[in-house]
């Protein structure tokens, strides 16, 4: 993992924080390289954090 500390975004760049959040895996918090999707619910995760890695 790169870091578990969230980057601090200035108040005027709230949109950039949203974009940053969308580009990160919700499991490992790394930026997506190869994104995977669960078809039943459309959740995304990094191929590095997928069920086959656990």
TrEMBL record:
Sorted alphabetically, which SUPFAM superfamilies does this protein's record hold?
RING/U-box (SSF57850)
Provide the species name.
Monodon monoceros
Q: Which domain of life is it from?
A: Eukaryota
A GO cellular component annotation in the UniProt record: Rad6-Rad18 complex
State the protein's name: RAD18 E3 ubiquitin protein ligase
A GO term, aspect molecular function: single-stranded DNA binding
Query: What is a biological process (GO) this protein takes part in?
Result: protein monoubiquitination
